[in-house]
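User: Here's a structure from my thesis project, written as structure tokens. My advisor, Dr. K., wants to see whether a designed sequence matches the one we expressed. Can you design one independently, without my sequence as a hint?
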């Protein structure tokens, strides 16, 4: 598919639309009906096409934006461009893929992490927390982990959903990766009870931080 046009891609995406998938996705705030395996297959077919990705993003269509995150060159975006994009990414899946597949691989990710972390928009702030969680796991040097736990302890209970989820993930990651902070992380989780009653399918780990931390540490020790 050399030099594919946006119009051609939109026709392909429309052909993949499934009303049943859309109904399920809409319950989670995602307004698209494309099977994600088929979307990934289309991305594989298109290969990397950065300008096409930019144009697909501008359509404001959720499936097109998801595809854009798969066929772009993450390192080719400017810092300000990604800042605009994260504010445009209002659906959970687009936001998640943009942060994980694009921003994390971009040379400006640390600057953006710091800028977004305290953003007044809770969805943008959740991106800052997601990038912080990545650093907790992979590059913790220079992070103030006790300070992060202070913020989580003070703010997570009343944070809006997406921000709360991101803070909770950071709390769990600190407890999993850093034994010296584990007892405090578990204690914060137990007292705040965030996601304690979250419905968890069989064979999946609960997102309730004390259970999540304990289970992941158990697995690490079993290896």
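Assistant: Designed independently from the structure alone:
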């Amino acid at each position: 598919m050399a030099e594919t046009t946006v119009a051609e891609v939109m026709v392909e995406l429309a052909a993949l639309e499934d009303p049943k998938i859309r109904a399920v996705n809409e319950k989670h705030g995602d307004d698209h009906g494309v099977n994600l395996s088929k979307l990934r297959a289309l991305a594989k077919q298109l290969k990397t096409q950065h300008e096409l990705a930019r144009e697909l993003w501008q359509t404001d269509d959720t499936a097109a934006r998801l595809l854009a995150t798969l066929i772009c060159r993450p390192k080719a975006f400017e810092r300000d461009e990604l800042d605009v994009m994260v504010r445009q990414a209002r659906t959970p899946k687009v936001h998640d893929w943009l942060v994980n597949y694009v921003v994390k691989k971009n040379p400006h990710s640390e600057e953006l992490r710091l800028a977004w972390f305290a953003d007044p928009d809770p969805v943008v702030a959740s991106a800052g927390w997601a990038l912080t969680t990545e650093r907790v796991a992979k590059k913790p040097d220079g992070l103030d982990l006790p300070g992060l736990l202070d913020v989580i302890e003070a703010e997570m209970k009343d944070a809006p959903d997406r921000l709360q989820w991101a803070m909770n993930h950071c709390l769990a990651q600190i407890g999993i990766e850093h034994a010296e902070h584990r007892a405090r992380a578990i204690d914060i989780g137990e007292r705040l009870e965030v996601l304690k009653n979250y419905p968890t399918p069989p064979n999946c780990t609960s997102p309730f931080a004390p259970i999540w931390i304990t289970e992941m540490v158990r697995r690490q020790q079993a290896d």
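When you compare it with your expressed construct, this may help: The radius of gyration is 19 Å.
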